[in-house]
Amino acid sequence: MPGDWGMVFDVSAVRATYPALSDGYAYLDGAAGTQVPEAVIEAIATAYRRGIGNVGGAFPASHRSDAIVAEARAAVADLVGGRPEGVILGPNMTTLTYRLAYALAKHWREGDEVVLSRLDHDANVRPWVQVAARAGATVRWAEVDVATGELGVEQYDALIGERTRLVAVTAASNVLGTRPDVPAITAKARAGGAVSYVDGVHATAHGPTDAAALGADFYATSAYKWSGPHIGAVVADPERLDALVPDKLASSSEDVPERFETGTSPFADFAGVAAAVDHLAGLDPTATGTRRERLLASLAAAEAYELEIFAGLLAGLAAMPHVTLYGKAARRTATAYFTVAGRTPDEVATHLAERRVNVWNGHNYAWEVTAALGIREAGSAVRAGLVHYNDSSDVDRLLEGVAALG
């Protein structure tokens, strides 16, 4: 039960590991990027202090970078349930998705089809729309129930056909928090012979992840959403990656996953990625076993804790007659998206910032769903999201600030 997990989850101890939280602000902007714990800061600084070089060299600084890259791949694999040799690292999920889109679309022909979702962040929409247009492929859309924020699974029966090449879907909406039934959707894609590309950027921070159980042929995530530096990753079976030929320099590695990683990597930041995963694995100090096992237990504890205090946030906003909430999915992350009568979203965010409460406003790159909701042209809405370092005082301050606008 959430209450039981709340007793195990020591949020005060967790908060003490994040230096930025000492500034007196309520950081409810985690859906756009989290703060980082001291261990991540120290890992990055230590990499620079010790000295690093480019990979593949004969000298110790290069060997340290080799080890850092290997550690980062292993950490991400543990986090999402993949294999280290199938972990592509890069500057962010958007850039990596474009790279994979270009590589996958080389096999598409006129009349082929891709199935996208209106629920998704634009980073799992626009790359596919653009490469489909170049290939002459047709884009088909899975629609969102605007009243609930749900993405109905049954519609995919009519959307997926023998010419479907790819199905792209989010594991959780970055504005509504909706968690679609991804395993059911990817099963339909697989039955139709299509590959699935799952955007796990928002979802990964908010609970245990098992990319295989989700049925994801490609699973994308970003470390800065789960207390790491600004690094993205896409995880897939190495054999699937081996069948793809990305555009790259003639002189760069032909190996998988290196062939998808253009340019020189930020090796010190990769050290921060591994440290962030270790931090997540320790959120539940009672968890034991392998790092993967500790991650599953810790993130389950964090998710239950987040949803416990999120219930109070939702109830508080719902009780205010001047507030409109968007999204009522049965399964969701601790993410609220709302408007305030008589105020633009920017005005609300500015008012809250003056009260030292950090929230985001606008479409937040959820381009399609904000249009479907009919709010994009008016500035969309305000987003307040909880992560594992938020506490009930953050929720209280948000509610007090929004109540003052009534």
From TrEMBL:
Residues 27-398 form the Aminotransferase class V domain. It comes from the Bacteria. InterPro entries: Aminotrans_V_dom, Cys_dSase-rel, PyrdxlP-dep_Trfase, PyrdxlP-dep_Trfase_major, PyrdxlP-dep_Trfase_small. Pfam families: Aminotran_5. Gene3D superfamilies: Aspartate Aminotransferase, domain 1, Type I PLP-dependent aspartate aminotransferase-like (Major domain). This is Cysteine desulfurase-like protein. It comes from Phytohabitans flavus.
